[in-house]
C-alpha cells in the first residue's frame, strides 16, 4: 500500500491515465489523422522504456535471463525501426 506522500503521486498518475490520456487523445484526433495518432500511440511504450532507463536508471535484472533469440537480432536496430514508424504517416 502507498504511504503518506505516495498517495498524491499515485492520484496524479491515475488521473493522467484515466482522464488525461483519453481526453487529450480525443482532442488531438480533431487535428491529426488516425494514422498519425496510431503511430504516436505505438511509440509510447518505447518512450516510456527510454525514460525509465534515463531517469530511473532501470536495467533488466540478472534473473530475467538472456534476451531471447528474436530480441538479440532486433535490439540493435530498434532506434531505426522507431524512426521508420514515426516517418511512415508522412510518406503516405
Describe the secondary structure blueprint for this structure.
Layout lengths: L5 H24 L4 H23 L12 H6 L3 H14 L1
Helix pairs in contact: 2-4
Tell me about this structure:
The N and C termini lie far apart (48 Å). This protein has helices at 6-29, 34-56, 69-74, 78-91. It has two domains: 1-31; 33-92. Helix 2 runs antiparallel to helix 4. It is built from four helices and no strands. By secondary structure, the protein is mainly alpha-helical. It is 73% helix and 0% strand. The relative contact order is 0.08.
Overall form: flat
H/E element order: HHHH
Low-confidence stretches: none
Q: What value does the Rg take, in angstroms?
A: 17 Å
Structural class: mainly alpha
Question: Which labels suit this protein?
Answer:
mainly alpha, flat
Brief overview, please?
This protein is an all-alpha fold and 92 residues long.
Amino acid at each position: 500500500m502507498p504511504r503518506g506522500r505516495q498517495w498524491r503521486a499515485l492520484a496524479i498518475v491515475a488521473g493522467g491515465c484515466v482522464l488525461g490520456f483519453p481526453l487529450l487523445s480525443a482532442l488531438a484526433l480533431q487535428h491529426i489523422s488516425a494514422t498519425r495518432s496510431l503511430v504516436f500511440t505505438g511509440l509510447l511504450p518505447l518512450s516510456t522504456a527510454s525514460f525509465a532507463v534515463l531517469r530511473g536508471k532501470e536495467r533488466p535484472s540478472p534473473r530475467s535471463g538472456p534476451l531471447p533469440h528474436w530480441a538479440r537480432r532486433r535490439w540493435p536496430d530498434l532506434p531505426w525501426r522507431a524512426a521508420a514508424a514515426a516517418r511512415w504517416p508522412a510518406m503516405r
